[in-house]
Fold this sequence. Notes:
Number of helices: 5
Helix content: 10-25%
Strand content: 25-35%
Oligomer: single chain
Amino acid sequence: MSALTNKKWTVEDYLAFERASEEKHEYLAGDIYLMTGASRKHNLIGVNLARILGTQLLGRSCEAYINDMRVRVSAKNYTYPDFKVVCGTPEFEDAEVDTLLNPTLIIEVLSPSTEQYDCSKKFQNYRTLDSLKEYILISQDAPRIERYLRQENGQWLFSDATKLEAALELPSIGCTLLLEEVYDKVNYEQE
């Protein structure tokens, strides 16, 4: 990941720039990073997630957002997770209602260019969100979903599912991911 410019940005400058931009950028400690386009598999998984979780959340006090909803992780960190859910009353940074402050669950679909960052530094940053109860990583190269669930003592419990016949419970939002549904139409031999 390399910064878009050598300029150090204030949060105010970043938000003004971002809201006027046709492209998406993440903000980390004064630097901005262009978000690149997603692969076919990444998009298929994202659409499947929206359908699966959107249906399970119908009539409940949770809202799901796709990748265009920005999350403020800290005063110096703004990201665009692939998918996020907030249960209860959503809180936003300002009247623009485009920056979520209190996600309950965050899902990242792993890409070759971002996998290392999503699994390490990004998750380290996400763990500072008091509202975050669950972090999900979805491989687009093979059926594999990893779950990190925050425990009462603040530690994170890891589990995973690696077979298309498997199901993964999402206790933070009371939903279930069936891998065969998450990976519907995803062909691993192509791309």
